[in-house]
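Review form for a predicted model. The reviewer records the input and the model, then writes brief findings.
Reviewer: anonymous (R2)
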Amino acid sequence: MAAYAVIEAPCHVPEAIDEAPNDMTEQTIGRFIYWLSLAAFPVLIFFTRYHYISKTRGWVDVAGKIMRSRDVLLGDSVTPFVDVCYEFAGKTLTVSNLNTSGTSLRDYPTGGAIRLLVDPSNPHKCTVKLASAYGDEWLLKVATRRANRTKSQ
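Model under review:
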């Protein structure tokens, strides 16, 4: 048989456990996520625009004609896609399924005019020219410097 010794010592059991003052509550976490998403939105817009400008740097602006337009479901939203024809270097070219990045099919009527950016090294590669935004000149300078830096390395 084992013998147990009883030690009597003062023991203080608190009524409630106090939270440390720096603990993150659900409200604090919610506020953090809210402000993080607000900060991420302009960054996403910036890098989307930067990608477009750096991709089309040096491409030629040409006029095209919309041969066919239709709405295509991309995820949860509908986006107008177009088939276009255009002239480049004396040749008439046709490209299908160009994403306009637009919101309304009414902006792209069949038979209407459209501005395109064409890759001079591959004239079959083109994209719909987006409207200029504030800061595009600065982004173009950054894209040009970055491209020149990678060529020299």
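Findings: The helical segments are 26-55, 136-152.
Further findings: The longest strand covers residues 60-74.
Recommendation: see findings above.
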